[in-house]
TrEMBL record:
This is Dienelactone hydrolase family protein. Pfam families: DLH (PF01738). GO terms for molecular function: hydrolase activity. The keyword Metal-binding does not apply. It comes from Fibrella rubiginis. Residues 1-24 form the signal peptide. Residues 78-280 form the Dienelactone hydrolase domain. PANTHER family: ALPHA_BETA-HYDROLASES SUPERFAMILY PROTEIN, CARBOXYMETHYLENEBUTENOLIDASE-RELATED. InterPro entries: AB_hydrolase_fold, Dienelactn_hydro, Dienelactone_hydrolase-like. It comes from the Bacteria. Keywords: Hydrolase, Signal.
Length: 284
């Protein structure tokens, strides 16, 4: 199961990360020798583990949907909460495999209200598609194109502008995207929070990070296992990068209220840690 999971998340890992200005070349990540994400999506037990998200109709008090251009000549969607005061501080919020649903919008607005004077943007990585059951979510993740994911991230960075200071946060599928986003942001990257997302393992790519990382993981996670996390920490050390890891006695997806094994205490502590981290990285 773990190998199959790595096969899928290789879609995230294979995004091209930018190099620092003094580095000329970029490299792509091999697909771990696996055939692709079909094996993972169809693996026995995986879909059953992710029960359908609880129904939620969320009406925002401050945010609205917007569109922005992407470097592949298309448009992308996002839920944008603009700072009440003009600000170059930005938080990029990355969805789970369900898509940009109301749960993610609510989480984005929670960060917006607590951070204050920070633009918060929850980026739609599925171009308008949202899943309501695991089989549908599997198909969307299965159909996600790595080039398109990279283009959407780059478009969001361009939307924020060249003076923007950017931090990111994401869960599961979005946890991996949060790290890839930080790589693409270059020197604009000021913070990166990963909730149980599969990490970048290429040491040379990690060397191009211009921010530290806060990783929030579950010790009972059968996918992003403690062994995977330990290897990530070792690779960050080899790359000369800083990472703080908090390991909870919880399962994968412990911070998602729709998860039948949602851990309220762990989720509250993880949010508090992420908020403290983001406030420090995005302070005026």
């Amino acid at each position: 199961m773990k190998i199959l999971f790595i096969s899928v998340i290789s879609l995230v890992l294979s995004l091209l990360a930018p190099t620092k200005p003094e580095t000329a070349a970029t490299t792509s990540i091999p697909v771990c020798g696996m055939k692709g994400m079909d094996q993972f999506v169809d693996a026995p037990g995986f879909l059953a583990f992710h029960e359908s998200p609880l129904p939620l109709h969320y009406v925002s008090k401050a945010g609205e949907m917007t569109t922005f251009s992407t470097p592949d000549g298309k448009k992308a969607n996002a839920f944008l909460l603009k700072s009440a005061k003009p600000s170059d501080k930005w938080l990029f919020v990355y969805q789970e495999w369900w898509g940009l649903n109301d749960h993610i919008k609510k989480e984005a607005e929670t960060y917006y209200n607590d951070l204050k004077n920070v633009n918060v943007i929850a980026i739609d990585m599925y171009d308008g598609k949202v899943a309501t059951d695991p089989a549908e979510a599997g198909k969307l993740m299965q159909g996600a194109d790595k080039a398109r994911l990279g283009a959407i991230m780059k478009g969001a960075i361009a939307l924020a502008g060249p003076k923007a200071e950017i931090a990111s946060v994401g869960w599961c599928f979005g946890g991996g995207l949060s790290l890839q986003s930080a790589l693409l942001e270059g020197k604009q990257a000021k913070g990166c929070v990963m909730y149980y997302g599969f990490p970048e393992m290429d040491v040379e790519k990690l060397k191009t990070l211009d921010t530290d990382v806060l990783g929030l993981f579950g010790s009972q996670d059968g996918y992003i296992s403690p062994k995977v996390v330990a290897q990530f920490e070792e690779n960050m050390k080899k790359a000369g990068e800083k990472i703080e890891v908090k390991m909870y006695d919880a399962v994968h997806g412990f911070a998602n209220p729709s998860n039948p094994k949602y851990d309220k205490a762990a989720a509250a502590d993880a949010y508090s840690r992420s908020l403290t981290y983001l406030k420090d990285r995005l302070k005026a």
